[in-house]
Write a structure and sequence with these properties.
The protein has 431 residues and is α+β, with helices and mostly antiparallel strands. The protein contains ten helices and 24 strands.
């Protein structure tokens, strides 16, 4: 049975950091609305946390900013660090607001799960978004997914795209436990998945040249090659395009992050590990292709290289793009944390870190994860975690996963890239 929840904002605006609001935000709003009758609402909320979000539709909106002030004095713990002349201490703050042009349904969620008619009354929150965002919600059960609504943006699960929080088993109990402990619900761990508009994401394939001849960079130059790619794209794109801050997006200062991924050569033949190719993952599909089809790259010594866009894949690109259940890292994964407890290595903590890394990028958690030491040395800048733990991984998923598969810190600049085990050369790296 499919649960549909339609949301309308009578004031034609919603206060939120991003829109559409993710499924976990809806779940938390339902918990808040039923706080006074939690025992009665528990079966419905548990059914929602077990369900799978299969689509989110939203109406056309315009992002603006409103100045919001809290009608209160600073709390006691705020007064300790409150400074009248410090701008960060002011109670008036700017807040993103999304405004709608027309009445009607502004947001719809679709969940596959086990629901009954008596649960619907508990799945209609009256606030969704920041505190000012009053809404009218209507929950209903449908037999099958309807066609995509005309005039609505449709977000669906994807291997690439925007990261959204989704409900998970135990989320209700965790929210209650944190509330009873007087802790912020923001500290509760969430499950992450990626959603995208159909056809929005694009992968741009490149080969490197110098003086008209194909060029190969050494493996240890990978961070520098990623940096050159990024700066070349920034130089090529305009500052704004149709009102979109293009240079901010290209420089990864926006909420959506572009991945600049040099690809070491792997395969049966000529697997020398040198870098002759790259892929740029554009999650919003916003890069103007006519401007980034040929990129002029300059290294710190002033040497000039060219990255030329390829329109067809080849056997090396396929090692990074073709779906597979088994994957192995080609560049080291940077663990954005430490796997020690009380000064000693803690395997349980390391496993938890590894599991979380896959969830954060919207990938399923592998059924097996093996670690091994990096065979090559790749220098990582201090900005991208010079002191982070570096490890190589071999993983196996329950079902096939398509590339590019990248995890860990530095995932936007070439660290933690996986290749599929369709090539036997990976076996030697795992030994």
């Amino acid at each position: 049975m499919t649960l549909r929840i339609d949301v309308t904002y009578p004031t034609l605006n919603v206060h939120a950091k991003e829109f559409p609001l993710d499924a976990a935000c809806l779940f938390q709003a339902c918990v808040n609305a039923n706080a006074y009758r939690l025992d009665m609402a528990r079966p419905a909320l548990q059914a929602l946390e077990r369900a799978t979000c299969v689509r989110i539709e939203c109406a056309a909106m315009v992002r603006t900013t409103a100045t919001v002030t809290g009608p209160r004095l600073p709390k006691l713990n705020e007064m300790i660090r409150f400074k009248l002349n410090d701008a960060s201490s002011r109670l008036m703050v700017g807040q993103p607001v999304y405004r709608f042009a027309n009445d009607g349904i502004h947001l719809s969620y679709f969940f596959d799960g086990e629901f009954t008619e008596d649960m619907l009354n508990y799945l209609e929150p009256w606030r969704l978004g920041h505190g000012e965002s009053l809404c009218v919600a209507k929950a209903s059960l449908i037999q099958s997914m309807p066609p995509k609504a005309v005039g609505m943006q449709s977000w669906e699960p994807s291997h690439r795209g925007r990261q959204m929080r989704i409900p998970r088993l135990g989320l209700l109990d965790d929210l209650v436990a944190y509330y009873n402990a007087n802790k912020s619900s923001h500290e509760v761990e969430h499950r992450i998945a990626r959603f995208s508009i159909e056809g929005i994401s694009q992968r741009l394939l490149y080969r490197f040249y110098r003086d008209g001849q194909e060029h190969a960079f050494h493996e240890w130059e990978l961070p520098a090659v990623a940096g050159m790619l990024r700066h070349a794209v920034i130089d090529q794109v305009p500052a704004t395009l149709n009102g979109f801050a293009m240079k901010e997006y290209a420089s990864n200062h926006a909420s959506a992050q572009i991945q600049y991924l040099p690809l070491p050569n792997v395969g049966h033949e000529y697997a020398d590990g040198k870098i002759r190719r790259a892929v740029i993952v554009d999650p919003l599909g916003m890069l103007p292709l006519h401007r980034v089809s040929e990129l002029r790259m300059i290294d710190l010594k002033g040497r000039t290289f060219t990255a030329v866009r390829e329109t067809r894949s080849d056997s090396v690109f396929d090692k990074y793009l073709v779906p597979s259940r088994r994957w192995v890292t080609v560049t080291p994964v940077l663990l954005n944390g430490y796997d020690t407890k009380h000064g000693k290595q803690n395997l349980k903590k390391r496993q938890k870190m590894l599991t979380k890394m896959f969830r954060v990028v919207g990938l399923p958690v592998p059924k097996t994860i093996q670690t091994f030491e990096p065979a090559q040395r790749i220098e990582v800048s201090k900005k991208h975690g010079k002191n982070y733990i570096k490890t190589m991984l071999a993983v196996e998923f329950e079902n096939e996963v398509g590339g590019v598969v990248v995890v860990g810190a530095g995932q936007n600049s070439g660290m933690g890239i996986f290749a599929n085990l369709l090539w036997s050369g990976a076996d030697s790296r795992c030994s």
